[in-house]
Amino acid sequence: MNAAPHASRIVIDACPLCGATKWSLHCGAASRSRGGEGTSGRPLDGEDSSEAEWVRCQCGLVFKHREAIDAVDAHGDGDAAHAGHYDSRYFGRYARRRRRRVRKARRQILDALEFAPQGRLLDVGCSLGYTMEAARSLGLEACGVDVSAVAVEECRRRGLEARAGTLEQLPCEDGSIAVAVLKHVFEHTPAPRAALGELRRVLIKDGAVFLAVPNLGYFKAARSPQTSRFFRGEAGRAHFVYYTPATLARLLESEGFVVCSVHPLLRHRRAGPLRRLLEAAQAPLRAPFRALVDVLGLRKEFWLVAVRM
Fold first, then answer.
1. CA pair distance 296, 18, nearest whole angstrom
2. Cα–Cα distance, 37 to 33 (Å, whole number)
3. Of the candidates 235, 238, 262, 266, which has an alpha carbon nearest to the alpha carbon of residue 250?
4. Most buried among 133, 142, 151, 271, using CB within 10 Å?
5. Are 307 and 206 in contact (CB under 8 A)?
6. What pTM was estimated for this model as a whole?
7. CA-to-CA dists, residue 51 to 28, 42, 69, angstroms
8. Per-residue pLDDT tens digits for 276-308
9. pLDDT tens for residues 12-45?
10. Residue (of 195, 209, 229, 158) closest to 80 by Cα position
11. How would you class 152 by CB atoms within 10 Å of its CB: exposed for 0-12, middle for 13-18, buried for 19 or more?
12. C-alpha–C-alpha distance, residues 269 and 12, integer Å
């Protein structure tokens, strides 16, 4: 027996990439209104009160068009509205394997530094400070921003510079940042163009943004979106837009960025001597493996570096 229907509201009423108001249902609650002209308050079908209606635009972007009112009440419009969700219990899962996370962050920063001048680094959604710690080990000045008071307090306890803030309102001066790092943050905003405008504001000319986001082309999400964790549960509530490398590149380029690389780089000019030798030896083996991973859709996330022009 079906549960009582839930009232809903419009989340995104036009494609964030191309502006279209016509699309097809990708997964989630069935909709009588496929063109974005529905009104908030119409019930969502289905038994999951957190279920949303995800749509696919003809340009290839997938985004959340509608969601249940009770999901909005619980989680709000993006991370800032439900910062209390990111409490000490939430961050418990990220406290483990700190060294591994810092090493990964070093590689990601080196990816960005291939295309940007050295300078102040901003980690947006800094969590427990892994990226700032990695930046410091590379000799960079770093600061972090997070919506969670728990995260900000923990970073400060470790001697790291962190402030409360959101992607749409960064607590940074104009042109003060050389590298901005956003790891699994950009999919949390329903207004990606506004967020990119804010990043342009704080970045210096030729500054770089490093983005890591879920990959819409991941085979599990592509094969069965209705049951994919991308669109249900915690991710389904907190995320708003899913990208492929092609759609994210188009969005960035339309907002004054030039995409320099997609996926981890095989070689880094600014790495230490031993690492450069190791990368040179491994690159011929890693390149075909990486191509196979992409063809099979095995990459759950992708990395992208773009420079502000």
1. 28
2. 6
3. 262
4. 151
5. yes
6. 0.86
7. 6, 14, 10
8. 899 999 989 899 999 999 999 999 999 999 999
9. 999 999 999 999 999 987 544 444 443 333 444 4
10. 195
11. buried
12. 41
